[in-house]
Amino acid sequence: MPLILNGLEPIPWWLAGAGIAFVTLALLWVSSNRLGVSTGFENVCSLVVRAPYFGRDAIRGSNGWRLPLLGGLVLGGFLSAVLGGGWEPTWALGMFDTAIGWGPAGKVAWMFVGGLLIGFGTRLAGGCTSGHGIFGLSNLELPSLVSTVSFMAAGAVTTNLIYRVIV
Amino acid sequence: MMTLFYVVLGTLFGFILSRSGAADYNYIQGMFLFEEFQLYGIIGTAVALAAPGLWLLKRYGKTLTGKPLVVERKAGHRGNVYGGILFGIGWSITGMCPGPVLVNVGEGKLYALAALAGVLVGAALFGCSYRVLTRPFRLPPLAVGTGEG
Predict the structure, then answer these.
(1) Can you tell me the ipTM of this complex?
(2) Segment A41-51, tens digit of pLDDT
(3) Does A116 contact B125 at a Cβ distance shorter than 8 Å?
(4) Which of A8, A107, B11, B115 could form a disulfide with A72 if both were Cys (CB 3.0 to 4.6 A apart)?
C-alpha cells in the first residue's frame, strides 16, 4: 500500500524498526536521555503556561534537549516530503476521505478532538508510543506494558467501531 | 553542539516515521483493523533491537563522554491504564501518535496543525489539573509527575 505522502512506497518494517532502535540507543548513550516525545508537549506548554506543573525541574531541565528533538521531527517530515516528490500543503487523509469524506472544517474539528485526547491521555499515562511502547518495553518496565496494552486495545476498539460498525 | 545533535536525531526519527507508514493515516487504521503488519513489524523490531542494546549500555554503565549512565524507571499508577485508553482513542481518531503529529505537520498535512493544537491544549489542561487528578488516579507527587516519555 503506498503512503498518502506523494504515493511513495514505504521502507521495509525491519529497516524502520532498526532505525528507531538506533535513535533510542544513540540518545541514551550520547546524552543519557530516555526517548519519549509526549513530555516534549509539556516543554512547549512551559514556555507559555505559568502553572506549577510546568515549572517543575523535570520540565525546565529538559527544554534543552526535548524542544530541539521535537523541532527535528517536524524537519524530518519536511525533508521526507521535499526529497520524496516535493512538499505541498494537502488535506488528503486516505481512507477517511473515501469512507467519511468530510471537508477541511470537519477534519479540523475531528483532529482537534483527537489531539485533545492524545495530549491529555499521553500525559496522564506518563508516555506514548515512544516513551512507553519503545523505551519502556525495551527496559522491561511493567507500567509501560500496562500502558501499551491499554492504548493499543483502545485504538483497535475505536478504529473497528468507526470503520466496521459506524461507516 | 548538543542542540544540533538533538535536532539531527529528531530529523532522522521524523524521516523514518514519515517513510515507514508510522505517520500515515491508512497504515495506522490498518494496524488497528489487524489488516497491516507494517506497524507491528516496526515496533516489534525496534523493541527487539533496543532491548538488548539497552541492557548492554546499562551494563557498560557509561555515556559517550564517560559520565555514569543511569536509567530511571517510571512509576506505575492508574493513569497508565486510563491515560493509555484516552490516548489510544486519540491515536485512532487522528491516525497519529505524538511523534507523527509533528511529522505530519512537517509533511504539509494541514489537518495535522489542528491535531497539534489539540495536543498542546490537552497537555496544558492536564498540567493545570494535576492536583485534582492526583488522588483519583493515584499519581506520584507533582514534582515527580506521571513519568517522562
Answers:
(1) 0.97
(2) 999 999 999 99
(3) yes
(4) B11
